[in-house]
């Protein structure tokens, strides 16, 4: 698996330090509130697990499974709900937890949906931000790292469902996805 990686962009240690920092920031942000933390499956799973163990306030967790990439490296442009929330969001303070904002289409769709469902507030924390990919108008409230305009894998992020269990963020060798 590690043999398929051309370059490590963000190390396991850098990710761990950042998760602690962001979790502590969330503690301050949501102290005395009872937010609903929403993990966007599947990619956000490791990040959600790591930041929330440093968030020392009462909170509730739920998950939404949305998909727009399928097996491709480009967004289909259509965000599909694979699994909806089990929790009502009306009047709640929501924290959306994402692994990456690229085109922004996934988060634009989710924020609009939660506003339509009358959430009290909607904030976004993302591990990675790829601003050069953006086509939709959306910004995160908290960002771990900015990444260049490359398809990244690891720590939740997949290519054809592989590499989500890598402990770091990296870039694949071109031959892995049929490039030169
Ligand atoms: O800003 P965007 O261009 O919309 O891209 C971001 C989304 O793409 C990935 O999800 P994907 O649809 O690949 O599903 P997955 O998390 O199950 O891999 C990622 O986890 C984000 O949710
Ligand atoms: N694995 C992966 N999924 C994405 N979804 C949106 N951008 C990316 C990316 O760079 N890598």
TrEMBL record:
Gene3D superfamilies: 3.40.50.2020
GO biological process, one term: IMP salvage
Predominant subcellular localization, coarse grouping: cytoplasm
EC assignment: 2.4.2.8
Top-level taxon of origin: Bacteria
Keyword Transferase in annotation: yes
Record SUPFAM superfamilies: PRTase-like (SSF53271)
Pathway stated in the Swiss-Prot or TrEMBL entry: Purine metabolism; GMP biosynthesis via salvage pathway; GMP from guanine: step 1/1; Purine metabolism; IMP biosynthesis via salvage pathway; IMP from hypoxanthine: step 1/1
GO molecular function: guanine phosphoribosyltransferase activity; hypoxanthine phosphoribosyltransferase activity; magnesium ion binding; nucleotide binding
Cofactor(s), by name: Mg(2+)
Family note: Belongs to the purine/pyrimidine phosphoribosyltransferase family.
NCBIfam families in UniProt: HGPRTase
Function: Purine salvage pathway enzyme that catalyzes the transfer of the ribosyl-5-phosphate group from 5-phospho-alpha-D-ribose 1-diphosphate (PRPP) to the N9 position of the 6-oxopurines hypoxanthine and guanine to form the corresponding ribonucleotides IMP (inosine 5'-monophosphate) and GMP (guanosine 5'-monophosphate), with the release of PPi.
Protein name: Hypoxanthine phosphoribosyltransferase
């Amino acid at each position: 698996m590690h043999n398929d990686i051309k370059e490590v962009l963000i190390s396991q240690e850098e990710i761990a330090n950042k998760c602690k920092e962001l979790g502590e920031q969330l503690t301050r942000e949501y102290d005395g509130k009872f937010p609903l933390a929403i993990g966007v499956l599947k990619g956000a799973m490791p990040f959600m697990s790591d930041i929330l163990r440093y968030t020392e306030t009462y909170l509730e967790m739920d998950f939404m499974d949305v998909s727009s990439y399928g097996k491709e490296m480009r967004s289909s442009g259509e965000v599909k709900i694979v699994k909806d929330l089990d929790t009502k969001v009306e009047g709640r303070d929501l924290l959306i937890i994402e692994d990456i904002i690229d085109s922004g289409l996934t988060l634009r769709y989710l924020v609009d949906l939660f506003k339509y469902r009358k959430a009290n507030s909607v904030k976004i924390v993302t591990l990675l931000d790829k601003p050069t990919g953006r086509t939709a108008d959306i910004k995160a409230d908290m960002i771990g790292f900015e990444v260049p305009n490359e398809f990244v894998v690891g720590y939740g992020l997949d290519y054809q469902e592989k590499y989500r269990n890598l402990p770091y963020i990296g870039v694949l060798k071109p031959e892995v996805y049929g490039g030169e």
